[in-house]
Design goal:
The chain is built from six helices and four strands; from the N terminus they run αβαβαβααβα. β1, α2 and β2 form a beta-alpha-beta unit. The longest helix is centred in the middle third of the chain and has 13 residues. It starts with a helix and ends in a 9-residue tail after the last helix. Keywords: Hydrogen ion transport, Ion transport, Transport.
């Protein structure tokens, strides 16, 4: 039943130019009937407020199931990501070409680890 409700949902990307280009070449680019893109290219000059507004906009859209965000960009809006507790859209932090993934910074992963104890893995 949950899979049926996910049919037709999009992946959104907030990332650097290389990350967004890679996903767009892979076919995830979409513009909805309101002319809203499902991606945002972030440069060194992009204001944090613009990133935050785009992220919040993706959270409100009912056609987005997953938000991929470069971890170094996620750090800029960490306070907003930490407030998101709904399972859909899922927020996944990914590495960029210039910044490797650091699991200790990933708030979603930290939250997931808190759900289990070491006893659960024996």
């Amino acid at each position: 039943m949950a899979i049926a409700s996910m049919k037709g949902k999009l992946i959104a990307v907030i990332g650097d130019e290389d990350t967004c280009t890679g996903f767009l070449v892979g076919g995830i680019g979409e513009i909805n009937k309101n002319r809203q893109q499902n991606y945002m290219v972030v440069t060194k000059d992009t204001p944090a407020l613009d990133i935050e507004e785009t992220f919040k906009g993706f959270l409100k859209r009912d056609d987005i199931a997953i938000i991929l965000i470069n971890q170094n960009i996620a750090e800029v809006i960490r306070h907003v990501i930490d407030q998101h507790t709904s399972p859909i859209p899922s927020v996944l932090e990914i590495p960029s070409k210039d910044a490797p993934y650091d699991a200790s910074k990933d708030s979603i992963l930290r939250r997931a680890k808190g759900m289990f104890s070491s006893e659960d893995f024996r």
